[in-house]
Amino acid sequence: MAAAEAADTQLMLGVGLIEKDTNGEVLWVWCYPSTTAPLRDLLLRKCCLTDENKLLHPFVFGQYRRTWFYITTVEVPDSSVLKKVTHFSIVLTAKDFNPEKYSTFAKILCRMYLKHGSPVKMMESYIAVLTKGICQSEENGSFLSKDFDARKAYLAGSIKDIVSQFGMETVILHTALMLKKRIVVYHPKIEAVQEFTRTLPALVWHRQDWTILHSYVHLNADELEALQMCPGYIAGFVDLEVSSRPDLYDVFVNLADSEITIAPLAKEAMTMGKLHKEIGQLIVQSAEDPEKSDSQVIQDISLKTREILSNLAPFSEVSGDGEKLVLNFELLKQRRFPPATENFLYHLAAAEQMLNI
Fold first, then answer.
1. What is the DSSP string of 169-226?
2. Fewest C-beta atoms under 10 Å: which of 11, 14, 195, 281?
3. Percentage of residues in the chain with pLDDT exceeding 70?
4. How far is CA 221 from CA 131, 207, 230, in A?
5. CB of 193 within 8 A of CB of 237?
6. Mean pLDDT across the chain, nearest whole number?
7. For the chain, percent of residues with pLDDT exceeding 90
8. What is the pTM of this model?
9. Count of CB atoms within 10 A of residue 319's CB?
10. What share of the chain is helix, strand, coil (3-state, %, to 5)?
């Protein structure tokens, strides 16, 4: 148990504080431990206090070069000891995806800062969570790291909401994820982008891989370079200009207009056939069943996904070095599947690294 707690507590990387003063200036005030200049610049960009449109986003999260960031922003009430500050943001960086965990912890840190006006108490709580996985305080609330299971974070979004918006077209998203394609999602509201993108990896539950999620990306050269180093991803944007960047996506989701577009270069790999229709119907039927919860819908999709993956088994053989299973393309061709199914299984084998290259 102690080992599990230690492993959990080692997920946090740092804590930082950004303030907006009464003159409207936004400054990176404090952090523990130190941070790099590129990461600090990124966090200032993500923090809504530097945004021109003055909209307050209480909580945003995202990923940059394998570091997750969670930013909680509050307005300072007149009663606070912080007299020269109008707003501040608490930034937590970590190795794991768990928005609920870090949002809960940040709220406690916010209350501490509003009360004491000094980062010292925040640092004490941060170190307590880092070393023991717990911080307790009478007036500011208690936080226990192990209350926040990763699986809960994976299941927090609603697949049913996605299907009710996109219906049969959800199969395009499922196919793109199965084939490890690049999905870009646009909506002018960051909250809508985050809610939608965080749910998508659940369509390929057998992988349980949320490292593909980049829920808040700016059209910034450094961020785009980091993103393009990933083979397949889900990237969220609030700038519509991303729609005219086909170099960034295979599938473009305009969430505001409920439209999904497949990029010309991805059309061959994403050709839809009878198999996709079957998958689409299963997704829609399961999601529209009022008796089923989101996790049951995910389970239904996952069973179908495993069935598809098992379709590759009869055409697989152990590679020459005996290291892994590879696809025997000749055997696959002999089965005379419909062209779209054969094409999909071939690209799926490529995504699962089952091709002999």
1. GHHHHHHHHHTT-EEEEE-SSHHHHHHHHHHGGGGGTTT---TTEE----S-HHHHHH
2. 281
3. 96
4. 36, 30, 15
5. yes
6. 92
7. 83
8. 0.94
9. 12
10. 50, 20, 30
Tokens of 106: 């940040």
The pLDDT of residue 9? 56
Phi, psi of 157 (to 5 degrees): -80, 175
C-alpha to C-alpha distance for 153 and 99, rounded to whole angstroms: 7
pLDDT of 195-238, one tens digit each?
999 999 999 999 999 999 999 999 999 999 999 999 899 999 99
74 sits in which H/E element: strand 67-75
Tokens coding 210 = 């949320």
Read off the DSSP letter of residue 85.
E
Q: What are 61's two structure tokens?
A: 């999260």
Cβ distance 22 to 87 under 8 Å? no
> pLDDT tens digits, residue range 110-123?
999 999 999 998 99
